[in-house]
Structures are given as structure tokens and as C-alpha cells.
Amino acid sequence: MAEKKKIFGFTPNVFYTGVVSFLTDTSVKMVYSVMPMFLMSIGASKTSLSLIEGIAESTASLIKAFSGYWSDRIGKNKPFMLIGYGLSAVIMPVYALVVSPLQVLILRFIERVGKGIRTAPRDSLVAGSVNGNEVGKSFGLHKAMDNSGAILGPLLAFLLLLFHPGDFRLIFLLAGIPGILGIFVLYFGIHEAKKHKESLLKKFRFSDYPKRFYLFLAIIFVFTLGNSTDALLMVKANEVGIKVTFIPLVYLISSIVSVFLAIPFGQLSDRIGREKLLIAGFFIYAMVYFGFGITANVYVIVALFAFYGIYSALTDGQQKSMISDLVDENKKGTGMGIYNALLGITLLPASLIAGLLYDKVNSKVPFYFGGSMALLAIVLMVIYLATKPKIEDAD
Fold it and tell me: Could you count the other beta carbons within 10 Å of the beta carbon of residue 83?
């Protein structure tokens, strides 16, 4: 079978998956960039704000492992993507009807269920649609497109707030439009990555995955325990003097930086290895979080959001590429599912710890905690890299 013509140097599946992520993230970030301020306007505390994010992510996270495993079993990814992205598209405008934090939690949970259904099969489809040594580059494109949506979404939210101050519900209503457009692109533009029936996953066994896979997940667990919801970053920005109207603009700074760096960093990881970039990313994260804890200067906060974008470009795509490198072809969906489930489950204690520290101690401590966990993850990642040949020999 002839190889399909590439689009801007990427296979059609990789490119159109990026477009779907761009449109969906535009929709989600229109809502997410103002949700902390909206929640506090209807009576939510910082602890409940963190708890809503943690519960929504964590309780839906097991679905990520299940959907990844099931997509490996049947050899199909697209149905899971259609259901998952469809749920997100439908939920966004419904936020306009809520009047209590509990209702936000319920809708947030349903929307995260959608993400849980689609994430691992989508990542598996990207990994299975790559030609040659372009895994890092392909996940870099996905991250860049994802963050392009994270730029446009907050920018649209800012413009709407500029002309309709405080009208969060109008933002929620309009956020459904790009999400629905994404469903059309997904349906017509993306095709299944061909899998041979005899190679499909028959059953799950822990022993089928290498030691390095589990060691890497342990490091990610440590890091994620200090990586609480980004909502607290926006709350801190507001508390140091940035007006609510401009919060979406400040938030998108990190996305702009990440867009420009995601693909180059992905290509670099294909050449020099993922581990080195992850160590650099964890270090920048630690510095950013210590900075958020120390400073009360508006300009420093803005600069820290820019560095946060560098951290994001260094880590997000590389972590998925690492999982793709570590597991066999017919187990990529399950591997991605376990990885994504771990991230989501760990977010509950991470967000709860950060929210309680913010409310009960002071605004500095949760950031110091996050920075410290990142430093611990660096130490573990250095050990992981140094012992890599020994682990490979043992396997």
C-alpha cells in the first residue's frame, strides 16, 4: 500500500489529530481560563476549587486505562475519540446554566470522562501513525496544536470579557462552537491506523511491560504529586494585582511559548533522548513554582508564566514519547492509558494538598511543596538515566 502524502511533513492522522486537539482546546480553554474566577463568584473557596479539579480528573482517570486497553483489544481508536471529544463539545455550553460549585463538579466530571475515553486511544493512534523515528516530532506537533488552542481560547475569553465584563455565561455558550467543529474534522479527516488481527492484545499482564516502564511511572507519580491544578496559578496572579479580565491573557502566555518550542523540543528528543529534556523541564518547573511562592510582583508573575510554557514544551510530549518507546506496538493504547490514569489519579491528592495549604497555611507553601517534589523527581530521573543500560541488560 502506498504511503499517504504528508501534510506539512506529518502523516494525515497526526496532522488532523492535531487540528481536532486545537479546536477542542480552544473550546475547553475558553471555559477553563475563567472558571476559577467564575467559581469564586458563586461561592467556591480555594480548597473546593482545587477539590473540584482533583475529583473530576481522578475519578475519570480509570477510564483512561480501560479505554486504552479496550482500543488495543479491538484494534480501533476512532470510536473512542468520537465519543470522548463529543462529550466535551456538548458539555461546554451547559456550564452557562450552573448556579452552584456542585453543578460545576458534576459537569466537570462528565467532561473529564470524555477526556478519559479519548486520551489513550488518541495517543495510541498518533504513535501508530508515525513513520520512522518521528515519535517525538509527532507528539511535539500535537502539543503545539493543543497549545495553539490554549492561546486562542483564553484570547477569545478575554475579548468577550472586555466587551461584556463579568459575563462568564456568554463565554460558556460560545465555547461549544469550536468543539463541534472538531468533531467534524475527526469524523472526516482521521482514519484508523491499520493493525493486524493476529497482533491485537489478547489480555493484560503486568509482566508484559518492562521494568523501565514502571520505574518511569514511579518518577511521574512523584513529580505529579507536586503538580496541582493550574487554577491556583491563576488565583495567585489575581491576588498579586492582575485584574480578572486580564487573567486569560496572562494564562495564554505559557501556551504561546510552548507552541513555538514543542516541535523543536520533540525533534531534539528524537536525537538526544527524552530523559535529558525531562530533567531540564522538571528543573524549570521547580524554579517557576518557587518563584510563585516567593514573589508578589506582577511582572515577575508574567515572566514565570512564560517559563511555565518552556516547562510544558519540554515535558508533555516527551513523557508520551517515552511511553511509546517503552511498550510494544500492540500495547501502546494500554500503556498510554495507564500513564494517563496515573496522572489523573495523582491529581486528586496533589490538588487537595495544594488547596488546603493555600487556605489553611498561606499562599506560598503549596508552591514550595510543588517545587520540592519537582527537585525530588529530578534526582530520581538522573538515577533512572544513569542506570538505564543496567536495566536494559536485566530485561
Answer: 15
Whole-number Cα distances in Å, 201 to 212, 213, 330: 20, 18, 6
Exposure pattern of 366-389 as b/e (b: 16+ CB <10 Å)?
bbbbbbebbbbbbebbeebeeeee
User: Cα–Cα–Cα angle for 136, 67, 335, nearest 5°?
Assistant: 40
Cα gap 120→251, rounded to integer Å: 26
Using alpha carbons, select from 7, 25, 391 the residue that is nearest to residue 211.
391
Contact between 137 and 261 under an 8 Å Cβ cutoff? The reply is no
Q: Are 144 and 257 in contact (CB under 8 A)?
A: no
Say what the pLDDT of residue 232 is: 81
pLDDT band at 1 (very low <50, low <70, confident <90, very high): very low
Q: What is the 3-state secondary structure (H, E, C) of 172-197?
A: HHHCHHHHHHHHHHHHHHCCCCCCCH
**CB under 8 Å to 353, separation ≥6 — which residues?**
225, 228, 366, 369
3-class secondary structure for 153-173?
Answer: HHHHHHHHHHHCCCCHHHHHH
Residue 390 pLDDT exceeds 60: no
Q: Percentage of the chain surpassing pLDDT 90? A: 36
289-310 b/e (C-beta count within 10 Å ≥ 16 → b): bbbbbebeeeeebbebbebbbb
In 3D space, the residue among 280, 269, 315, 294 whose CA is nearest the CA of residue 133 turns out to be 269
**CA 368 to each of CA 133, 167, 374: distance values in angstroms, whole numbers, following the listed order:** 38, 34, 10
Sign of CA dihedral 319, 325, 331, 333: positive
First-to-last alpha carbon distance for the chain, in angstroms, is 35
Residues 311 and 290 sit within 8 Å (Cβ to Cβ):
no
- Cell numbers that stand for 271 in this block: 536525537
Could you tell me if 59 and 109 are in contact, meaning their C-beta atoms sit under 8 angstroms apart? yes
- Residue 326 · residue 272 · CB < 8 Å: no
- Rounded Cα distance between 34 and 51, Å, is 17
Which letter does DSSP use for residue 200 in this model?
S
Of the candidates 70, 56, 57, the residue with the CA atom closest to the CA atom of residue 120: 70
359-363: long-range contacts, CB 8 A cutoff, minimum separation 24: 359/45, 359/46, 359/47, 360/47, 363/236, 363/239, 363/293
Write the CB contacts of 215 (distance below 8 Å, at least 6 apart in sequence). 384, 391
391, pLDDT greater than 50: no
